[in-house]
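Q: My collaborator sent me two sequences in one message, no labels, and asked for predicted structures for both. Can we handle them in order? The first one she listed is below.
A: Yes, handling them in the order given. First sequence, followed by its structure tokens:
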Amino acid sequence: MIKKNFDIFLDLGSSRIRAAGFNKGNVDKVIYTEQNCTSFLRIKKIDLTKTEKEIEKIILQVEKKTGEYLNNINLMIDSPDAISIGLSLFKVNDGKKINKNEVQYLIQDAKQQIQKSYPEDNVIHIITTNYKLDENNYNSFPVNESCHKFSIDLIFICFPKLLIKNLENLFIKHDIIIDQILCSSYAKSLHYKEQFVSFDKVIFIDLGFEKTSIIIYQNEQLKAFNILSLGGNHITKDISKVLNLDIKTAEKIKNNLNKNILFSDKNEDKENFKEEFLQEFENQDVSLDLIKKIIHARIDEILNLSFEQITLNEKPLNNDNFKIILMGQGSKILNDNSIYIQETTISYDEIIFFKESGINICESGLKLSHGKNKQEVIVIPKKAARTGFFEKLFHLFQ
């Protein structure tokens, strides 16, 4: 087998495909390429026809830039059909030292139960959010500690099997094997939180094409991960429906609006908008004020639903102030003047609009795959019959 010099991470977004190659021997040597492409990743209407054509271009560009045939990738995706499952495991320990093997078996059994309860989904990430020994809490595995009882809080992030199978088949057509699948929004938040280490509590709201992820960190530890099946494409659909425009035209309106004009009340800006943009549409009933109302209404709904999810996790936040980080392709239409949050029982310091690049996104996958993450439980899939029926789990922390 020819040794490869690059680790390839491909982020398959719903509106853009990004790929980066990271040189194994030289961290400063990175290649990058991207293609705009609408990929329908919702199970009820999954369609990868256009996606496959753009993937072919990505493959050629990666091979040209790395000088290597592309045989393996690490795939980063998000899905509006993804689910997040929280689970607590308990065990009586009779004053003995906590045994790592017993913890592994507990997590292994929990994973099997999740798979039985959700047969249409695959577990992508298993994350420990807390260890509790008697009345003491620990963020990471407590070594050489004794207790009478202990519990483990876990989060399982799952993707539909049908989606994964379709993606595997797409790449197999090009003789490419997917080494691992990573949740993009989780990987990004884990990477980006390093820029906010001075804050005790940080919440990421990742506004995507047809989903919004809410990821909560406290003292740099993941505490909650939630998913809403609402995203930027719902704004496009609203514009299309209310203004009686086709989807392509509605998307063009959304994507081409200047934020300063969209959220401006100046008559001069309104006139400029009419002259430079609306005049090309046959429907003369289209107005800036109406478009603003449509967009504001959907933005308010998404953000306030996100705040409801945060409220559900109010206990780990202890009602203290925290930072909210808005990211994702769908958040690009927003600015400080577009936020209209209804009254809520929680308080926050400020909302920060995080600018991310394609290389940053792919680098997030690299950091999650090769970095140290004490919360992630790594699973080795079985490769031979002698490994037994169950998959082996190892490394409660890396």
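Q: And the one she listed second?
A: Here it is, processed independently of the first:
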Amino acid sequence: VALYGSDSALLQTTTHPVNTTSSELNLSPDELQRILAAPNQLTLHPIQLNSQAYQAAYAPFQFGTQPLGVIASFLPDTVPAITQTGQQLGGLSLAAVAGTAVIALFIATHAFVIRPAGQVTQVAQALQAGNSFVRTGMKPTNEIAAAGHALDQYADYVQERQDTLRASLRRQRRESEYLMSVLESMPDGIVVHDQQGQIVVMNEPARVLLGTQPEDKLGLRDLSASKSKSSQPLAPGLYTLGDPRRLEFDGHMINAQAAALVNLSDERVGTLVVLRDITKEVRRDQLQEAMLKWMSDEVQLSTRFVSHAQQMPSLINNVALDLAKHSGAIQKLIFEMREITMPDAPNLHESQRPLYLDTLIWVIANEWRQIASAANLGLEVLIEKRGLFVLGDERRLRWAIGNLVDNAIKYTLPGGKLTLEVNGESDGRALMRVRDNGVGIIRAEIPHLTTRFYRGTPRTLEGDILHVPGTGQGLYVTKQVIQAHGGLLQIKSKPGVGTAVYFALPVTASVSYELPILSHEFDLEGETVRLKRDNL
């Protein structure tokens, strides 16, 4: 047997006679092409090998339709040998076909089953090892490819979720860093507790106040344990818990306010406590109170002296009466300084109640009408919308609005006019105005009018300076009282034309009880009254 390649070269042979040369077995290219051209025929040729006649039988050797070469069999030149040669070549052809089929089946199995399955396995192992970017790249053309395609889709989904999670974590980290920078920049101490009362965040001012030890030195857990949160949030997810508390610690007075932290599901997730060192303010108030008490005692001493002096001759008696008058004014000033200059005092909210605005305005007008008349000024009340109620401390509001009327009287020349007005309601606030046609205020002084102890230089149209006594804190305290009630205040003025002070107070619901009705003949000084509406 001999095997020839597609280029007619002898590849291998089983004949090993000693004197046989390869030239005796050569097959020309033309003969090779004739044999390949007849794939279903057996080509016979006589051949001499070692001077002995042989019959050579040639048949194509191919894989599918692709010719690989020629296979040849050499037998002695006899009839039985030729028959035997045909049988052998037929068997060889069948064996070649069977081998070819096996090889083709193996190649197909490897191409469509083993290799894709191995690829899917490798990708799954790589994903398990943490390489989230590897993919099979298969199209769902069969079951194994469909499994690989599904694995790619799942890997893409997991990768997308991981990218989203990473982006969210980076954003949360940036927001957390920004929040911490904001907390560290705040002058007040900030302490955040979780639901178990453990401190999770504390800024530097809080560490300065409390020290670095995490133990609860101020009873902050008691503040955090409060369950009653306000109905209106200070900010989204932040509700106050009770009223501020004043605590004493290590020689300091600390104001502490707790607030509940609430998530989007309205579930409480923690507590924020704001700490403010008010030691200086408390000491200043104590010194101020001591000074006012001393002044009050001194004035009372002078008043007792004046009461004895009234028994003296008439001239001294008149002086004594004048001193008594001024002593009373000074006592009133001391009282107002003590009570009115603290609009944020704890008892401010306790003394608030719904006030009928019409009555409040008329009471203030009647309080100042005689003083306006003595200064040859007209005082009018204009109420465009009736029936409004405001929530406030009546005594402080009467003082604050009365101070505006007092200023209008002081800086309006005789023969002038001033009005006390209620101009309606806007954005939940009652709009009011005190207006006069006095000397007015230059534009440069207006921004400073509500600065404590500031006093301007009012002038008439002729340039004469008006000398008005005062301490320079009336408008400052008035603004503090208005703002403590949740209101606003604005001043507009023009020299030679007059001044208008606009202010607004939050309105509230009416009350069921009626204030007592008082006749016009009663002295309204210091009284709370309600006039008949028919007479307004």
